[in-house]
């Protein structure tokens, strides 16, 4: 139980952002260097203005100075017990445990001692997001991102402008315009993809000719496989046409036709690129001129798209106004749908964030040392509390008995004093009359002095026993520290050498 609590102390320090060396798995593994490092970090976190050293230098004088500063700072924080420089240079296991526990308590109470686990999670998530974004940019290098955004906006615009069949003719006309614009935009995208493929083919031909020819040859050899895919798709279309459900057939045929068209376009682009790559009749300058012309055409298309986009946005605004005027309930539903979509995106991002946090916490939990269950800890606390109450009851009983014995002792002493006074007076009167009385008086006086000496001896013996118990406790504490005599001798030799060096420097000056 004690070893587990000491491991938990180190884990708590790590949670507060204190760096723990890898070779330290428990408090007993700490040495003077690691202890000074941990204490310096803790004190710097507790007091933001402090700048305690986190390492021990080679000079013994500097070591004593740093350890003295650390011990003074720990005492100012309210450490109960003896605290000096030798607690850092020659620590015992018990001293280490008490000091680390005290620092953890002060870190938890200090506003500076913020748990950095969540901050690390946020920083890690930000870094991962940035890396993913960077990777995506590298993957999409050379692709016209503007056209992809345009296509997405067109699709959203078309979805937003869809109305029931009972809508007016103006909405239908606008939808047709949007559809035609989408078709034109898709053609622009296809043109851009062909241009980019041409550019990549030409650059590959200039940089690595042999390798580029091999790659294009491989693409050229893919023609039979594309033809086979087209044939398979046609067979599937013919099979679907034989079905009974006309609506499902129409949807399937439309999808397959689109797929066939895409494959044809892809094959056409690859074929064109391959022809350009194997064409030796035109020099490189000819293709460069074509590239420049295509770039100029691309700029013109962008300017045309800007004008088209502006007109489409205006049409969209008019459609929204007409929809708001003619179909307020549809407009309201559309607004609600947008809000729901935003909430859904927010919820998805929150779920993703929680999943990442759960994964990290699960990994941290697996890394944590296996400790006793909560029930056993509760039972242990109950047992300690029960023993503490029992000890309190025993202490109260002992104190009560001590008071009673003290009262009884005081009453007996008073009674003895009074009895002695009476007997002394009686024997003293008899001693004046004869010699027997004088002898009895001498015996009484000697007996009284002997009893006083016995009482003093008993009290002195009791004091000696208590001192012996204290010295034995100190000896046990010294034995538990297990001081390394070799280390002490080495430190002493280092101090003597430094003193000799300083004396030599003083003589030279």
TrEMBL record:
<dbReference type="GO" id="GO:2000060">
    <property type="term" value="P:positive regulation of ubiquitin-dependent protein catabolic process"/>
</dbReference>
<dbReference type="GO" id="GO:0097602">
    <property type="term" value="F:cullin family protein binding"/>
</dbReference>
<dbReference type="InterPro" id="IPR008530">
    <property type="entry name" value="CCDC22"/>
</dbReference>
<dbReference type="Pfam" id="PF05667">
    <property type="entry name" value="CCDC22_CC"/>
</dbReference>
<dbReference type="Pfam" id="PF21674">
    <property type="entry name" value="CCDC22_N"/>
</dbReference>
<keyword id="KW-0175">Coiled coil</keyword>
<dbReference type="InterPro" id="IPR048349">
    <property type="entry name" value="CCDC22_N"/>
</dbReference>
<feature type="coiled-coil region">
    <location>
        <begin position="302"/>
        <end position="357"/>
    </location>
</feature>
<protein>
    <recommendedName>
        <fullName>Coiled-coil domain-containing protein 22 homolog</fullName>
    </recommendedName>
</protein>
<feature type="domain" description="CCDC22 N-terminal">
    <location>
        <begin position="3"/>
        <end position="108"/>
    </location>
</feature>
<comment type="similarity">
    <text>Belongs to the CCDC22 family.</text>
</comment>
<feature type="region of interest" description="Disordered">
    <location>
        <begin position="161"/>
        <end position="212"/>
    </location>
</feature>
<feature type="domain" description="CCDC22 coiled-coil">
    <location>
        <begin position="144"/>
        <end position="477"/>
    </location>
</feature>
<dbReference type="InterPro" id="IPR048348">
    <property type="entry name" value="CCDC22_CC"/>
</dbReference>
<feature type="compositionally biased region" description="Basic and acidic residues">
    <location>
        <begin position="185"/>
        <end position="205"/>
    </location>
</feature>
